[in-house]
Specification:
Length: 119
Amino acid sequence: MAINDVEHCEVHDVHRDLVNRIGKEMPFEDELYDLAELFKVFGDSTRIKILFALFESEMCVCDIAETLNMTQSAISHQLKILKQSKLVGNRREGKSIIYYLADDHVRTIIAQGMSHISE
C-alpha cells in the first residue's frame, strides 16, 4: 500500500500538550513487550479453541482433545503455552489434571473478543 493510499493530516501540526500527556502515560518498553507477547498467545486458533472450551467449563486434557478432535499431545503442548502465559491453571483430581481459565481477566478477554467480532 502506497503512502498516498493512507489517510493522513494535510498539515504537520503536532499537538504538543497531547503528545506530552500520552508520553507520560505510556507504559515502560518491557511492559509493552510483555503485553505484545500475551496477545501473540491469542494469535493461534487452537489456543483460542482451548480457551473457548475452558470458558464454558473446566476440562481435562482428554475431554479437550475429544472436543477439538485433536491428539492429547497437541492439546498438552498448547496448554503448556497457555499455562506459561498465566491464562490457564490446573489442578489434580485423582489421576486427571483439570484445566480452567486462570482468572476473570481471561474470561473478560474472551467475552470481549467474541462481542467485538459479532458487531
